[in-house]
Design a protein that fits this description.
With 220 residues, the protein is of the alpha+beta class. Helices cover 44% and strands 20% of the residues. The strands form two sheets. A four-stranded antiparallel sheet has the order 1-2-3-4, with helices on both faces. A four-stranded mixed sheet has the order 7-6-5-8, covered by helices on one side.
Length: 220
């Protein structure tokens, strides 16, 4: 037998010898098992109830009345103009006032009615946008300036040092010592409860003024 044959035979393992690493392969945790365990953990995880909190509190109804009346008047005017152009008799007062009168006007009644109706709709939408939005990470106050220009301001919860509750009137004391009064909303009691609950979670001080039952509760 040649030397090369003997060397080759010595390096080959016996037929009945266990393959090295076979036992380790059986005990080793596969990537699939690990991922499967993680997947099962994620399926049983429940996020906090307020994780995606975003609640909007609209303006009080008394601030909606002017825009609602304006829209009603605009719709009445639009209906009159539409009736005059489509169904009014040619000799009627409405036909003469609207259709025949447009011949000498720089702006027709139809165009004017469309402008007024669109303006009324915009006023209603702008009024509905006012109020307070409470999110998980911030508080946003939406209001209107003197000339009707919309204004939105947002403060993160980390900026809030204290919440002051006086009935349905609410204010924020910020970390720099300034106070920001929140606009009045339709459901001020619910807004106050929401802010107090969020403040308790974040250990923000709450000062409730007045002799109400909730006024005797303080959170820090």
């Amino acid at each position: 037998m040649s030397r090369g044959t003997v060397a080759s035979s010595a390096s080959d393992p016996p037929d009945d010898a266990p393959v090295q690493g076979a036992a380790d392969e059986g005990d080793r945790v596969s990537v699939t098992d690990v991922n499967g365990t993680i997947a099962r953990f994620e399926m049983t995880y429940s996020p906090p109830a307020d994780e995606h909190l975003r609640v909007k509190f609209g303006p009080p109804w008394r601030t909606r009345v002017p825009s609602a009346l304006y829209l009603a008047a605009a719709l009445v005017l639009g209906s009159v103009v539409l009736y005059a152009y489509t169904a009014a008799p040619s000799g009627s007062f409405i036909f003469g006032w609207v259709v025949e009168g447009d011949r000498g006007r720089p702006l027709s009644a139809g165009v004017l009615a469309i402008v007024i109706v669109v303006s009324a709709l915009a006023t209603v939408l702008r009024t509905a946008m006012r109020g307070v939005i409470v999110g998980e990470e911030w508080i946003e106050a939406r209001s209107l300036l003197v000339l009707g220009i919309p204004r939105a301001r947002r403060w993160g919860w980390a900026q809030v040092l204290r919440i002051v509750v006086d009935g349905h009137r609410l204010a924020l004391e910020l970390w720099d010592g300034t106070f920001e009064r929140l606009p009045e909303v339709a459901n001020g009691g619910k807004l106050a409860d929401t802010l107090i609950r969020q403040a308790q979670r974040r250990r923000i001080q709450v000062t409730v003024l007045g002799a109400t039952q909730r006024g005797r509760q303080r959170a820090s």
